[in-house]
Every structure is written in C-alpha cells, then in structure tokens.
Design goal:
The structure holds two protein chains of two kinds. Chain A is an all-alpha fold. In chain A, 71% of the residues lie in helices and 0% in strands. Chain A contains 18 helices and no strands. In chain B, strand 1, helix 3 and strand 2 form a beta-alpha-beta unit. The chains are: A mainly alpha, B alpha/beta.
Chain lengths: 378, 470
C-alpha cells in the first residue's frame, strides 16, 4: 500500500514539474481548424481534463500559459489579453451553478440574517431596526439562557474534541495494523456513522436508563453505584459526549488515510535505530499525521459548537438547562419564542466564536502541524 | 465574446433578483380583500375558491380531518380545500417559513403563544366579528373556557377541540390490588392523603411487596401506582385545586411562588421522591407512553389528558376514568390549542365556513366518539340526544365518563395559564427547567421557584383576561 502510494506521488510530482501544455502534439493538430479563439478553449479544456485524470490539480493561471504555447507566438499582446478575458469569463460561466448556489443559498441568507440581527423581527410583524439591541440583550444578561448555553457548549467542546480525537486516533492506529478480519472491524466501527442519529439516540437512552439500563447493569458488576447519566445535571454533558465520541466513523477514516500515507522506511528506520512502538508513535506517526489531526481538530470544534440533535432527542435541554446547547437555544429563540431578529444575532455570535477558535487553531498550527515537503522558515 | 458577457450579466441579474426576493420576504403583505359578500351570495356565484388549511395530529386524526374536509367540499362544491398536514414536530418551523414567504394558510391549527403574538400584530382575524354576522351560531353556544381572547372583545378563536386532564386507570390492576376504584363524581373526589395511600398500595416492587410495606424496595419497582408527565398541564390542576394560580389578577406578579402553588407542586414531587409511587421524569423518558404503560401494567393510574381514551378504547383495555384527586376543591384543567383564521387571506367568508364546519362536532363525530376530542358546543354536553352520539355506548367512553370528564370539564374546568398569561411560553421556559430539580428531588418546589422568581418577574407582561371579557 505504502509503496503504491509513493510511486503515485512520484508520478504526480513529476507531472507538476512539467511546464506548459501536456499534449502539444494533439493541440497543434487542433490549431489547423477554424478560429483560433475557439480552438484555444478546446485545447485548454482538453488539457485540463487530461491533467485531472493525472491527479494534477488544475489551476486557473495555467490557462494563458497553455494558450500562449499553442499559438506559437503568432498573436499580438492585445489578442492574448482578449483570449484570456474570454476564457476567464467562460470559466466563470461554467462555474456559475456553484457560484449561484453559493450566492443564493448561502451568501444571500447570511447577509439577510446579518441585517435581521439588527432588527426586531418575528416573521409576522413589521421590520423595525433596533441597532445593537439584540446583541446587547444577550451580553448584558437580559436573556436568561445565553450564558448558560455558552457554558454548556464550551464544556461540551472542551470535553468532546480532545476525547474524540484521542479515541478515534487510537482506533485508527488499531485498524491500521495487519490484524485478522480487519475489514469487518473497520466496518463495525464505521457503522454508527451511517445509522440515523435519532435511532442511535434512542438506543443510548436505553443504555443510560438509571434503573434497568445496560450501563448501570455493567457498573453494578464492578460495585459502582447507579449513575444517573443524562438524568443528572453533572452527568448529562459527559453522557452526551460519550454518544458523540462513539460515532467514530468519519474521523477514524481520515486518520486511517493519514496513517497510510506515512512512508514505511521512516518506521523501519526507527526499528533499525532500536526504537520501540512508542518511539514510532511519538516521533514518526504523530508528526506525520499532524495535518490530519489539525483537520479533525477544526472539524471537531465546528461540529461541537453546533451540536443539537442529541440534546434535542435525549434531554430536551434538561435537567435544569444543563444540556441547553447553543444550537437548541437558537432554535428555541427562533421558533418557540418567534424572535427571529434575536435568533439571527445568536447565530452570528456563534459564527464569530467558531471563527475565533478556528483562527486561533490556524495561527497555532505552524507550531505543531508538519506538512510533508514543507521547508521550515519558508 | 459579447454573447458570453450577455449570458453572464443575465445570470447575475437573475441571481440578484433571487437574492432580493429572498431578503425581501416577509416585509410585504397582501392587502386583505374586503369580505362583504354574504355566505349565500358567494354560494350563488359559485366562483371557485381555494382555501389552504394546515393542521397536525396523529395518523388517526389526520384521516378524520381529511374525511371531514372532504365532506365539506361535497357540501360546498365551489370551495376546494388544500389541506396540508404538517407533523407537529415541524409545525412551528414550517408555518413560520410559510408566513415569512407570504404563503400563510387561510386557516389552521396554531401554537397558543405564537397565535397570541400574531393576533396582537393583527395577523389573525377576530372570530367575534364572524360570529356577530353569523345567523346560525352565537358565542353562547360554545363552552366558556375554550376561547383565546387577546383583548376585550377580540378573540383569535377556540380550541380545535376541547380537552381536559383526568385520572385514568387499569381496572384489572385496581381489582387485583383490592383497592377502591377512583370516584367519578366531583363531590366524592379523593383528598390527597387518600390518593397517596391508594397509590402506595398499587406500587409493587420486584418481590411483590407494595409501597406501604416496610421492606418495600423502591430501587426495584415493577409496577408504579401512578404516572404523570411533569409539565404545567399536570401540576396546574393541583395548583388551582389548592386555591393557587400562575399569576395574580392583573398578571403583574408571579403567584406560582405562593404557598398554595408550591405545596401543590411539592405534593406531586413527593409522589416520586418521598413515596416512590411514581416514576421520575428520567425514568419516564425510557418508559412507554402513559397509555401504553397502563396496558402493559407498568403503571396502575395515570394523570393524563382525556385524549388518551382514543388509544385505550382502541386497545380494548378494561380501563376506567375518575376525577383528579383534590387538595381544597375538585377541578380539572381545560386545554387545547387554537384553530385560527389568518388575516390577509382572500376568502375570509369561506374560511369561516370551513372553520364552523371543523368546529361542528357532527362533522368530526368519529374523533369525538373515538375519544380523541370533546365537542366545543354546550348542547353536546347537556342534551341527551347529542350526548348519546359521542359519550355513550362505545369502548372509548367507559362507565362514569359523563361524570368524571364530561360534566367535570364544563362545571369545574379551569382554562390553563396558556389562555391568559402573556408571553407564557417564555415564562414556562424558565419555570420548567427550575422545576426539573424538584422532580429529581434536589430542591423543594418553594426553593426552586423562589430562585427563578426574579427572572420570571422581569418577563411578566400582564394577562389576556379571558374571564372579564365576554
């Protein structure tokens, strides 16, 4: 597996180093026909397709370069510019479905919600601008749920992200070993990810049942008294973390991919130097997958701040709001109390919180994330 | 080249138009078309009219409402009803989106709190106006305690159906335990001590000992004496019974913190934590629905809505009904959610026709006789020939029903706080979590409510008094 990967990589890198168009012969044949402008398009797009099949990431800047090669220097600068513009426009046009989708379904609503966050809007009333009132009401404690939900959500993120990363990484390391029935194990651990989350919540509620749930039954064998799990204020967030960590599939798979990218000779080098498994993990595996850890860490934070289904299904925010997650708070504000303006403000506060945390993670990444081929200081 | 730019600009324009449409939603509103044509004129004209009607409910309710609407269309051939069933979990979200998209229905079921807010914004019709013009119906024909009035003389409508809270029990289990059957007449209602005693006799642990036995093991309970959900619908009847209320007369002060109210709530919590005769909310979460618990003998009595009769009747269970236990006086809580007519619709007269049709017990008789609904009209509680159509001779209405539920609802029914406390859903969002600590036995009712009282006090905005208004 590793060897195959390596050769693949070599191919790719050699591809990247080749300047200009990949198939000059074919392209020059094309130039014999018709208008040049049109042909350029065909050529460059044809080139792109080929490039993509070779795993090369097509880049926009490539287009004029290709084009100039094909034209063999006949064309004046102005025409070159025209052709470039034309291609740029066509490129944008072809990307339009995605761009329009983003504008209409993401950017538009986002801007709308930003505007609404400064209004007193309840869907059925007249819009009234209230300035920063929605935001002020959140931060000055007028809203009885804001700080509580922030606290609950931070607690959840602080608990679920490190725990989840560690557990999923550990699982991936196990799944990466050459053990019997590895395929079956991988499938089994991936299974929770395919199951509908509502169904897994129901099952967990049974497990958590304080009287006849399986978890308390097992604890009974160890002589540990019955726990209340999601029924107690102290236990509810850790219990929900448990259910979230159990859904291991996606993170585990990305870790597995990262682990399989580690060149075998590096691990062998540790063997040669007399290192043990811990040394391999500490000095080779973890640094080599640090970029995957980085990715999963950020996704964990983003998803953690937005968690809503488990508390909705299992606790309805209780007991005593100790599982009133930020997402639930937002939902309540919007649809139960029909205060859309305030709900939009809440959503934007969450957006900013996530942005800050993601930004901090990115800022800190040079200290601990290692990319293969990266030269320090560049 | 030019063509490409043209296409591009066209696409941009389209995207901007879409964008503005999305952003601009909700800020404009259709002008209501004046409704001057009388019902008969409209029928004579036979101009085709389409009404959009939204509702929620169980599969059985859905089927019954569909049939009801179909009959309405047969009778009024010029009206087409576009009935939209929305599952109740999605109802608020969906209806909010419809209103935001200027696509509000003509009439529909509605959440109480949202309905009041919309009525105050002028988005719902005043049903009193329709009634004043109507030749067939008077306001006096309806029960008194089912109206949602947002201001004097202004009513956004009645319950979609009348409901009340009652005591239901598995008759076989009562017999097996050898205890008295719960009384059906208000004057014989059990007092609290009697109720607790019966509940203790009915609670049995895995060794077969009941809760009065000194060796009773409350950690391994096989059969609970009583089960009740812990929301306001179930503690408020006891608060009223004890002479308490949610807020004071002008709605300026929370009275749920008064001794009458906290005692009542504490009594209920004691069933869970002191006497161990009722499951806690945590235990209930993984127990079946109360009506199913009765059937599977996990619980002997439930404090529940009368709508459970539908399931119990269909299950052919040997069950009975009784009045709720009392503290000071015997009462029950009347509840439901309103059906409303949205203002701004094009056909208010036709919407009123359908509204009346839905309210008429005759047109939804299956649901009344099935036990899910109770009629909204007084005559159906007093005239024997009408009572016999729904409350007699069917498996959902056992012996004693007429006293324990039907009579109790019109004579001792108190409309719940959702009918009169302004901003109730937001207040309950503070009170309910606080009370969770009481149900779990971590705090007394008094402590818990006193703690959140200042926060609730800030949210109080008065009451929509539905008693002074008529």
């Amino acid at each position: 597996m590793t060897i195959k990967n390596k050769t693949n990589k070599e191919q790719i890198s050699s591809q990247v180093e080749k300047p200009g168009c990949i198939f000059p012969d074919v392209l020059s044949n094309f130039t014999k026909f018709g208008k040049k402008g049109k042909l350029n398009n065909i050529c460059s797009y044809g080139g792109h397709m080929k490039q993509e099949t070779n795993n090369r990431v097509p880049m926009f800047e490539d287009i004029p370069e290709n084009a100039s090669n094909i034209r063999l220097g006949h064309l004046a600068n102005t025409k070159k510019k025209n052709a470039y513009r034309q291609e740029a426009i066509l490129g944008v046009l072809f990307a339009m479905p995605a761009i329009l989708g983003f504008i209409i379904f993401t950017l538009g609503p986002m801007l709308a919600s930003l505007i609404l966050s400064f209004t007193d809007y309840a869907v059925f009333n007249k819009l009234k601008f209230v300035g920063f009132e929605n935001y002020i009401n959140l931060f000055n404690g007028d809203n009885p749920f804001f700080y509580k939900s922030i606290l609950v959500t931070f607690y959840y993120v602080a608990l679920s992200v490190p725990l989840g990363l560690t557990f999923h990484f550990f699982l991936a390391v196990l799944m990466n070993r050459k053990i019997k029935f590895r395929g079956i194990y991988r499938a089994v651990f991936y299974l929770p990810t395919i199951l509908p989350i509502a169904a897994t919540c129901t099952v967990w509620m049974w497990l958590f049942n304080p009287d006849f749930g399986l978890l308390n039954y097992l604890l009974g064998f160890l002589g540990i008294p019955k726990l209340m799990w999601i029924g107690s204020e102290a236990g509810v967030v850790p219990s929900i973390v448990l259910t979230a960590v159990w859904i291991a599939g996606n993170t585990m798979v990305t870790f597995l991919a990262g682990l399989q990218d580690i060149p075998r000779q590096m691990l062998e080098a540790v063997d040669v130097d007399g290192g043990n498994a811990f040394h391999k993990l500490r000095h080779i595996t973890i640094p080599m997958v640090s970029s995957t850890i980085f990715f999963n860490f950020i996704m964990g934070i983003i998803n953690g701040f937005q968690v809503i289904v488990q508390p909705m299904m299992m606790t309805a925010g209780g007991p005593n709001n100790s599982s009133l997650f930020y997402g639930m708070f937002l939902y309540k504000e919007a649809f139960e109390f029909s205060r859309m303006g305030s709900a939009c403000a809440i959503a934007w506060v969450l957006f900013i919180i996530i942005m800050i945390f993601t930004g901090l993670t990115f800022k800190s990444s040079p200290m601990w994330v290692y990319y293969e081929g990266e030269v320090k200081g560049k | 080249m030019k063509k490409a730019i043209k296409i591009l600009s066209l696409m941009l324009i389209v995207s901007f138009v879409f964008g503005t449409v999305f952003v601009g939603c909700g800020s404009t509103n259709k002008e209501p078309v004046k409704a001057d044509a009388s019902t008969k004129d409209a029928a004579a004209k036979k101009e085709p009219v389409t009404l959009k009607f939204t509702y929620w409910g169980s599969p059985i309710e859905k089927k019954a409402v569909e049939d009801c609407v179909k009959k309405f269309q047969e009778k009024n051939s010029y009206i087409t009803v576009d009935g939209m069933y929305i599952p109740s979990a999605d109802y608020l979200t969906k209806i909010t989106a419809m209103i935001a998209g200027n696509d509000a229905p003509d009439l529909g079921y509605m959440d109480v709190s949202l309905a009041f807010k919309m009525a105050e914004e002028g988005k719902l019709c005043n049903i009193n106006d329709f009634l004043a013009k109507d030749s067939e119906l008077k306001k006096e024909d309806y029960l008194d305690n089912i109206w949602y009035n947002w201001a004097p003389g202004k009513s956004l409508g009645t319950n979609s159906a009348c409901e009340s809270i009652t005591l239901l029990y598995n008759a076989d289990m009562i017999k097996a335990a050898g205890v008295e059957t719960p009384p059906t007449k208000a004057e014989n209602a059990w007092d609290w001590d009697k109720f607790v005693e019966i509940a203790r006799k009915l609670t049995i642990d895995s060794n077969g000992k009941n809760a009065l036995d000194p060796a009773f093991d409350y950690k391994n309970i096989k059969q609970y004496g009583v089960q009740f959900p812990t929301t306001w619908q179930y503690y408020m009847p006891l608060v009223y019974s004890n002479g308490g209320d949610y807020v004071n007369d002008d709605g300026s002060k929370l009275t749920l913190s008064s001794k009458e109210a906290t005692d009542a709530i504490q009594n209920l919590a004691d069933l869970v934590n002191k006497y161990h005769v009722a499951p806690s909310p945590v235990q209930q979460r993984s127990m079946p629905a109360p009506s199913v618990g009765l059937q599977s003998k996990q619980v002997a009595m439930i404090l529940a809505g009368q709508w459970n009769l539908l399931d119990l009747g269909a299950a052919k269970l040997n069950f009975g009904v009784g009045v709720l236990p009392k503290l000071k006086k015997s009462v029950t809580l009347v509840l439901g959610s309103p059906t409303v007519i949205f203002s701004g619709g094009r056909h208010p007269e036709e919407a009123w026709l359908l509204y009346k049709w839905l309210q008429n017990p005759e047109s939804s008789i299956d649901l009344q006789a099935g036990g899910l609904w109770m009629p909204l009209m007084k005559d159906w509680y007093t005239k024997p020939e009408l009572i016999s159509k729904w409350a007699e001779n069917n498996p959902s209405h056992p012996e004693g029903y007429k006293d324990a539920i039907m009579k109790q609802t019109i004579e001792k029914g108190v409309s719940g706080p959702a009918y009169y406390v302004k901003g109730f859903s937001e207040i309950d969002a503070i009170i309910a979590p606080a009370l969770e600590q009481v149900w779990l036995g971590n705090k007394t009712a008094e402590q818990a409510i006193k703690e959140v009282e200042p926060k609730v006090q800030e949210k109080l905005k008065g009451r929509y008094d539905n008693k002074k208004q008529n």
